[in-house]
UniProtKB/TrEMBL annotation:
This is Haloacid dehalogenase. Belongs to the HAD-like hydrolase superfamily. S-2-haloalkanoic acid dehalogenase family. Keywords: Hydrolase. Gene3D superfamilies: HAD superfamily/HAD-like, Putative phosphatase, domain 2. CDD domains: HAD_L2-DEX. NCBIfam families: HAD-SF-IA-v2, HAD_type_II. It comes from the Bacteria. Coiled coil: none annotated. It comes from Phaeodactylibacter xiamenensis.
């Protein structure tokens, strides 16, 4: 049985962070290095990480995701008055290579792989994405690991989503997209991809004129 949002889809494309990978281990790395201060650093870091992808895309000044994320961390440390050694920054950043996969993703991926071609579409640079998927043991489920790095611009630029469809030799309407990030869903829908928003945090959709085709709380709902 196919998801209502993906009746025409031949492939499903997943965002990585927050969708497949649980980034809470990053918070644990922050906690290990900076103790209680980590709770102030983490939200600033995440917000700046997103802002820098958008700003660098608008400025046409690309920097790869790993380096950009480190820049955002440095900003977060400075803005919270946190002194950090270079080795501490390197330790925290290395956690991106060893992220845990959400339990529902581990259960759903083998089931979905029986019905669809699967791929990942992420802002992460290829080496980061490949190592994280290999570490978690989910790399074999995916036909392709697609990175915005190939275009030197970040989501939600339409060309990034079109790259996923083109890489799979499908039309956008045949390429289902799943993300836990509501701005990412709006971007994919705007680019013509059918979407399912994985609403892990009981949020609300962006008011951008592109509603998700389906709202789910677990990836297992797509495999039901």
């Amino acid at each position: 049985m196919r998801s209502p949002a993906f009746t025409e889809a031949h492939a499903l494309v997943f965002d990585a962070y927050g969708t497949l990978f649980d980034v809470s281990s990053i918070d644990q790395a922050l906690q290990a290095e900076f103790g209680p201060q980590a709770s102030q650093i983490a939200p600033v870091w995440r917000q700046k990480q997103l802002e820098y992808t958008w700003l660098r895309s608008l400025m046409d000044r690309y920097k790869d995701f790993y380096a950009l994320t480190e820049d955002a961390l440095v900003y977060a440390l400075q803005s919270t008055g946190t002194h950090a050694r270079l080795d501490q920054i390197r330790t925290i950043m290395s956690a991106y290579y060893e992220l845990k996969v959400f339990p529902d993703a581990l259960e759903a991926l083998p089931l979905l792989a029986e019905r669809y071609r699967l791929a990942v579409l992420s802002n992460a640079n290829p080496s980061l994405l490949e190592r994280a998927c290999a570490f978690s043991g989910i790399d074999n489920y995916f036909e392709q690991l697609l990175s915005a790095d190939a275009l030197q611009v970040y989501k939600p630029t339409p060309a990034v989503y079109h790259m996923a469809a083109e890489g799979l030799e499908l039309e956008p309407a045949q390429t289902g997209f799943i993300s836990a990030n509501t701005w990412d869903i709006a971007g994919a829908a705007s680019a013509g991809l059918p979407t399912a928003w994985l609403n892990r945090k009981s949020g609300v959709p962006e008011v951008l004129g592109y509603a998700p085709g389906q709202i789910i709380q677990s990836l297992l709902q797509l495999a039901a």
